[in-house]
From TrEMBL:
InterPro entries to which the protein is assigned, alphabetical: Gal_Oxase/kelch_b-propeller (IPR011043)
Entry-linked SUPFAM superfamilies: Galactose oxidase, central domain
Organism, as annotated: Candidatus Eisenbergiella merdipullorum
Lineage: Bacteria, Bacillati, Bacillota, Clostridia, Lachnospirales
Domain of life: Bacteria
Protein name listed in UniProt: WG repeat-containing protein
Length: 342
């Protein structure tokens, strides 16, 4: 079934390989404080931001093009980073906060679910959510993966690294049944079996901060790095490597395009990069006007393939537009390759 899904995904993007996006920005009705949002999620036809340092959550209604702010949070920096939409409820993953933030659009209510631990500092960064509602967050200055059971509202630690603190910054679920956690600096990639939670360390230690890697149509994992180049993980042999190490990508996220190519979300650069793992390689495909330290970080993909990047310091949402082609992503392909967590 997993191989069949990969084959169907490869066939889907092959049919769309000639499509090229255009780019636009959608102005914010109000800019929040510094480090506003990191990541976003789609629920229905609405885009929701993950509150990083902002005091309010942003909702953008795609069909009518309207924005509104919801909730009221303290002005602490780096509260939540990345998140998921599970059974039509938005969850924001704790980074500095000691709680999982839940928002139910149906009742327009927020809930903070305590982890039961008093961290006092940044402790985890981003994460993933499995199909049965288990969230796994990689460590940031701690010695454990944080596991949340959404249905039972419980949390526990999975110890790693022999009790020594470490820093990870990216996560991805592969259809092969493993979660891959990406190190920030001088650690090995963690490979964890979703079903047994058995952990192994693969490849040589790497650095460079790779937020939000994705699974491409060739079955490999790729992620544009904050520093130079692209991280590549080949799950068939557990090989980890860096490609295009002389190229300053400056990205705070990677998104799959419906054409089989990968797109960078411009972080500390203004450039948008396009990478074709099956053909043309790497090229610059667009740019944004940015005067900020970090423009965007993370975002979400709509069912028609439009990519939305959420602003960190920028005063707009970046849209990488594929919707003009009228393509609809099949639900299982969308869930496996386009619905991510940053």
């Amino acid at each position: 079934m997993k191989n069949n899904l990969m084959e169907r995904y490869a066939g889907f993007v092959s049919k769309n390989k000639m499509l090229s996006p255009d780019f636009e920005t959608i102005p914010l009705i109000e800019r929040q404080n510094s480090f506003q949002y990191v990541g976003g999620q789609m629920i229905g036809r609405n885009l929701y931001s993950i509150v990083n340092s902002a005091e309010k959550m942003l909702k953008y209604s795609i069909p009518v093009g309207t924005m509104e702010f919801m909730g009221q949070f303290d002005d602490t920096d780096f509260k939540w980073t990345g998140g998921c939409a599970y059974q039509n409820i938005l969850y924001a993953f704790p980074r500095f906060a000691d709680s999982l933030l839940a928002y139910d659009p149906r009742s327009d209510t927020f809930e903070e679910i305590s982890c039961g631990f008093d961290y006092k500092k940044e402790h985890h960064y981003g994460g993933v959510c499995t199909s049965d509602g288990m969230i796994y967050q990689p460590p940031r200055n701690t010695d454990h993966i944080l596991k949340w059971d959404i249905k039972n509202k419980t949390c526990k630690k999975i110890q790693i690294n022999n009790g020594s603190e470490c820093r990870y910054c990216g996560s991805v679920i592969h259809p092969d049944g493993f979660i891959y956690f990406i190190p920030e600096k001088d650690f090995c990639v963690i490979k964890m079996d979703i079903y047994t939670e058995q952990i192994s360390y693969i490849g040589e230690p790497v650095s460079g901060m790779t937020f939000n890697p994705v699974v491409a149509a060739d079955g490999n994992i790729y992620g544009f790095r904050v520093q130079n180049g692209i991280l590549k993980i080949d799950p068939s042999c557990d090989k980890v490597s860096i490609m295009y190490g002389n190229c300053n990508t400056g990205a705070y996220g990677t998104k799959n395009g419906i054409n089989g190519r990968l797109y960078s979300l411009p972080g500390y650069t203004n450039d948008i990069w396009e990478f074709d793992p099956l053909g043309d390689g790497l090229k610059k495909c667009g740019s944004v006007y940015g005067k900020y330290a970090v423009n965007y970080a993370g975002g979400a993909v709509d069912l028609n393939g439009d990519i939305y990047a959420l602003p960190v310091h920028a005063d707009n949402i970046l849209k990488i537009n594929f919707g003009k082609y009228g393509v609809r992503i099949p639900p299982d392909i969308y869930d496996a390759f386009f619905k991510d967590f940053y």
